[in-house]
Amino acid sequence: MLEAIQKLLVNLVKIFTAPLIFIGDIYISLSGLFQLGIYLIIVLLLGKLLKNLLKKVILLKLGIDKANREAISTIFSYGLSTLGVIVILQTQGFNVSSLAVLAGGLGVGIGLGFQDITKNFISSLNLLIERPIKIGDFIELENDLGFVEEIGLRSTRIRTLKDSHIIIPNSMLIEGKIHNLSYDNFQGRIEVDIFVSDDSDPVLVTEAVLMSAYMEPSVLQEPPPKVLFLGFQDNAFKFQLWIWVNEIYNQPIYISSLQFLIQHNLHKQGILVPWDNFNIYIHHPQNSTNLELSQNIILHGLKNYQSIPNKPLSVRDLLMQVTYFENFTDVELRKLIEVGYRKRLKPLDFLFHEGEPGDTFYIILSGSVEVFVEKINKYLTTLKAGNFFGELALMLGIPRTASVRAIEDTILFAIHAKGFEKILHENPELAEVIVQELGKHKEELSERQNQLRKLGLVNIEEDDKNLIFWVRNRLKILFNL
Questions:
Q1: What residue spans define the domains of the chain?
Q2: Looking at domain 138-180, which of 1.50.10, 3.40.50, 2.30.30, 1.10.12 is its CATH number?
Q3: Contacts of 42 (CB under 8 A, 6+ apart)
Q4: What percent of the chain is modeled with pLDDT above 70?
Q5: 105: which DSSP letter?
Q6: Topology of 315-478 in CATH?
């Protein structure tokens, strides 16, 4: 029995040590393959361990961002693993140049079987070095949106907004068309198509939709929201709202909030909103490829919207009460509304302090503010919904003469100097209307002119004793007319 066992062991040793294949001057046996396999596994494990050590400890302490940490650690791991394999082969007696010849011969036969693996591996190197897509990017792939979580040897893992995962071969990311929504940053644009019945007031719709955009805290004020009138479709007017946000990946939350706000403001203006469909698109500044996320919303106007109680003040009607704009057409008023923006104040919030630049004109849409002189703590007046102020400071470029703060929750419509300059360039005759209207208040103008002289804000070439000429020159200089 013992002899049989010994004989079996001898035979097994012969099997494991018997040459299977010769490469150059050396031979490979089963034991050699087993030993080589153990060494290779150790090298790969060490490479992975080093990758995690670099990515999660060393590079993190150096303050390198997540995408660069992933790229550096992966490339370093690839390089170390390759070097380790070469060293092991050399220490085991393999001639690397002989292996290259063998690989060249075998490559003809097995090239077709490994070409996809090779292509994806090379693609992963391209992704890590050129970085058209990097770890943490928010991308659109066909009908899916998600974050790039890992770029591996063969494939890339993407986590979608639904918390599922998509595995994409790296070659598809290199060869295909990928919409990277966060190439430089996560700022992006959301577009909302809105259809209203053709008996609706376009200016009123513009007001309500813009008000909705400014009521959403996540919407950026620069670039400002825009409402486009795109034309006519099936007995309806077609509008489109553009908004910009800092975190485009949160767009479902923004969309939901906007839907509530649009419905609320259109209803308050007397426009019935039967929720049917909604078209939403997301855009990134570097790419205008769009994605339809849902369907259309049809907004039907009511002819008799005046009958609705608590109807908010219309910016258009308030602008027409301002002498300078009273002869504007609806088209011109709509442009004025578009260059303006909404500003919300909480109780005791300051809008501005005396002495600050007078670069904005305001109309109170709701709430109230108090005007007072801080230096002497003197109350001047209270302004309520429908009142406007700051136009003189804006048009003459003079500092504020008093401070303004909110008494209650207040919403203001504001026109900044840049927007006002745009209107003056589009309506050159408005400048002369302003000159003639301001000329009716000679005492106040004279006081303002003297104030600017004391502050050294009046150039010699524009310091005309004729107040009409002075105002005209002042407008030309301030607004590049």
A1: 13-130, 138-180, 188-307, 315-478
A2: 2.30.30
A3: none
A4: 72
A5: H
A6: Jelly Rolls (2.60.120)
Rounded to a whole number of angstroms, the CA Rg of the chain reads 36
In degrees and rounded to multiples of 5, residue 174 shows phi and psi of -85, -40
Quick check: helix, strand or coil at residue 199?
Answer: coil
| DSSP letters spanning 37-100 | HHHHHHHHHHHHHHHHHIIIIIHHHTT--HHHHHHHHHHHHHHHHHHHHHHHHHHTT--HHHHH
Q: What torsion, rounded to 10 degrees, do the Cα atoms 218, 206, 226, 325 define?
A: -110
Q: Which residues is 31 bridged to in the sheet?
A: none
Topology classification of domain 188-307 = Alpha-Beta Plaits (3.30.70)
Inter-axis angle of helices 202-215 and 251-268, nearest 10: 140
Tokens of 180: 């990277």
Q: In this predicted model, what pLDDT tens digit does every residue of 284-311 receive, in sequence order? A: 554 444 434 333 433 333 333 344 446 6
CA distance 91 to 109: 28
Q: What is the mean pLDDT of each run of 10 residues along the chain (481 residues)?
A: 66 61 60 75 81 78 70 74 76 61 49 62 71 81 81 82 83 78 81 80 87 87 86 80 88 84 80 50 48 37 42 81 81 84 91 91 92 90 90 84 93 89 84 78 71 64 66 81 78
Same fold? 13-130, 188-307: no
Q: Tell me which residue of 450, 444, 442 sits closest to 469, measured CA to CA.
A: 442
Amino acid letter at 89? Answer: L
In the prediction, which pLDDT does 379 show?
A: 92
Task: Report how far residue 122's alpha carbon sits from residue 212's, in angstroms, rounded to the nearest whole number.
Answer: 49
Q: Residues 139-193: pLDDT tens digits?
A: 887 777 888 888 877 788 888 888 888 888 888 877 777 778 877 778 888 888 8
Amino acid letter, residue 75:
I
Q: How many residues does the chain have?
A: 481
Q: May I ask the CATH class of domain 13-130?
A: mainly alpha
